[in-house]
Each structure stands twice: as structure tokens, then as C-alpha cells.
Amino acid sequence: MMDRRTLLRALVVGGAGALSVGGFLFTENIIGPYRLTARAIADRFEEVNGTFRGFRRNHAKGVAVRGYFESNGTGAELSTASVFRGGKYRLSGRFSLSGGNPYAADAADSVRGLGLCIQLPGDNQWRLAMINLPVFLDPTPQDFYDRMLAFAPDAATGKPDPRIMSDYLATHPGTVAAMAIAKAAPVAPTFTTTTFNGLNAFEMTNAHGVKVPVRWKLVPETTTKAPAVDRGPHYLFDRLIADIAQRPRRWAMVIVVGVPGVDRTDDATIPWPDGRKTVTVGTVVLTDITTETADNVRDLNFDPLVLPDGIAPSDDPLLSARSAAYAESFRRRTGEAGGRGAVEAGGRA
Ligand code: HEM
């Protein structure tokens, strides 16, 4: 059995392998004084949303997509990652809405998610999970965990208790500020016109050994202000299915380069100043869409710490918590029957 110091050293020097060790330690609650575990997070989702067996504990409603990332080669100035060599790389993805109920009706204010798993040479992968909010609402995993309960619907009224919410916000000014930013951001009428943000900071290293903090986003090639007309229970997904059936849909992948020592890398609630350097490194092209099943994305974990060499995590505490919580959610659903998505998309992804 490794002692605590050896375990910590393994985390520091172990490169990619250390990431999974880090997730494990988070899951098993070995490293103190931090007491929140991935199991507790998954339990909290079930407590607040109910348990829908076979489905993700968050972002439960979704569809599978397929396509490719067309790299234009310019990312090489930032990172040695093979994904930034010019060329096309196959990918699997999943569009989702936040919440634990896979049968919930689509709503404009649900958080939209896009997970991608890009296949790279040598069996490498880059997995990304992005949302449409411009900033995250909680600086730490503990805050996320606490807010979930504070904002949960009250059993008697079916609505969150305003007093509990305001007591929570009174002691969480970072969340108040982030909510104001999120509220001011326009919500696109469709998935295909939505910008998806990675939010957490990462670190890229180029061939000269230069390291820079980065955040990334996917910016849609098509934009529209036209509101959706049909408000059926799957209106956002139905429109997405129709859009991709009509023609492949494209998003530019934009890397925002932070200023080392100036831009916060450990707090996803704080936006970086406008005007930071950006590098458009290629295009995500989605060609196929289909119903979610165990054969496509149900049994795929969009763990944000599966990174190619040349991209590393930052010091943002959300990252290891996300990795561990996604693994726990994956462990639960893949041990359960069911999980065929509520959105029937047909197709062959
Ligand atoms: C402490 C913070 C967070 C926690 C505890 C958390 C938790 C979770 C969990 C448990 C899932 C289900 C994962 C699965 O079963 O595969 C999930 C899904 C997801 N989360 Fe988070 N999350 C956090 C922050 C974020 C942030 C900052 C983003 C975006 C930048 C994000 C984007 C997503 C997306 C896109 C999905 C759906 C992935 C899929 O389709 O499989 N989450 N989250």
C-alpha cells in the first residue's frame, strides 16, 4: 500500500496516468482535508432529480452524433497535440440538456451540452464536454454540490424555496456575479446555432516548450435569431435532427489564449477579458445523428481529463471533480438496464 506522500508524488510526476489516479483518489476520498466524494455528488443528483436507471445522472436527455474535426494546422503554434496537425479526425459526440430526467420536456433555459470524443493517431483521444453558458456558476465542486440542494424543488410546492436560495446566494457572491453574466447572454434558438464553451482552463505546450493557459469554445457557422415555432416536448432535439439531416453542421473551434499570471485558471466563474488572443484551429463537422443507445454514446464517458499530450489540466478544482463524478455516473448507468434515449433520432451514428 502506498503511503500518502508516495501517492501525492505519483500525482505530481505521473503525467497522464496520474490523472486517473487523481480521479480515483477523489472518488475514494483518500486525500484530505477535502471530504466531498464522487459518490456523494452522484447521490446528490439522484436526491434532487430522482434516479433514472440506465441514464447519466446529469445531462440525461441526449442524442448521439458523429462527424469529424478538420484541423487547419494553426493549433501547432500553441500545442504539440497531434490533433493540431492538419487533417481530419473522426469523432463521436452527444448533444444534451442539463438535468437528471431523460424524459423532461425541452426548455430554452435548460443548459445545453455537447460532448465530443476525437480519435487521434496512435489510439489517442481528446474528450471535451462543453456547455452554452458563458461562465460556470460555481467556483468549486463543494459549491456546486451545495447549490444543487439549495436550488432543488421543494417537495410541497414543486418549486425551489426562494428563502433557501437567497440565503445561499448571500454567502456566494461569485455565483451571484456568474449568474448575472449568464442571464445577460442571449440564448440561441436552436442547438445548431449555439456556441458551446469549455469554460475550465487548460494548459497547452508547444514544440518550443512554451506553456499558455487556454480556454476553448465551438462557434457555430450558422446563426439565426428566428425563435422556434414548434414547442413540442422535444422541439430543440427535433430541430437538431432536421438540421443535421439537411446537411452537415459546422462549428469553428476557437482557442482563447490567456495571459499567464493574470487570467484566472482556477475559477471558471470568472470570464477572461474581451480581446484576448484567439486561434481558430479547425472546424467540427457533424454529419450523422441517431438515437442514444449503449452501442453509441450511452457507454461513452466524456471525461474532460482525457487529453492528448500537449494539453494538460489547469489548477481548476472543478476538473478532477468532474472527471470523478462522470466516472461514477458512468459506473452506475452501465450497470443498469435501459438507457435508450427518449429522443428518437433514427439515423446510423
Ligand atoms: C463540479 C462541477 C461539475 C460536476 C460535479 C458535473 C457533473 C456532471 C455529471 C455527473 C454528468 C454526467 C456525466 C456522465 O454520466 O457521463 C455531467 C455531464 C455533463 N457535464 Fe458536468 N459537471 C460539472 C461541471 C461542468 C462544466 C464546467 C461543464 C462544461 C464546461 C460541464 C459539462 C457537462 C456536459 C456537456 C455533460 C454531458 C456529457 C455527456 O453528454 O455525456 N459540466 N456533469
TrEMBL record:
GO terms classed as biological process: hydrogen peroxide catabolic process; response to hydrogen peroxide
Domain Catalase core: 34-349
Entries under InterPro entries matching the protein: Catalase (IPR018028), Catalase_core (IPR011614), Catalase_sf (IPR020835), Catalase_SrpA-type_pred (IPR024168), TAT_signal (IPR006311)
The keyword Transcription regulation is assigned to this record: no
Cofactor: heme
Function: Has an organic peroxide-dependent peroxidase activity.
Protein family membership: Belongs to the catalase family.
Keyword match Transferase: no
Protein's name according to its UniProt entry: Catalase-related peroxidase
SUPFAM superfamilies: Heme-dependent catalase-like
GO CC, one annotated term: cytoplasm
Example GO molecular function: metal ion binding
Keywords: Heme, Iron, Membrane, Metal-binding, Oxidoreductase, Peroxidase, Transmembrane, Transmembrane helix
Transmembrane spans: 7-26
Residues annotated as binding heme: Y326
Annotated active site: H59
EC number: 1.11.1.-
Recorded superkingdom: Bacteria
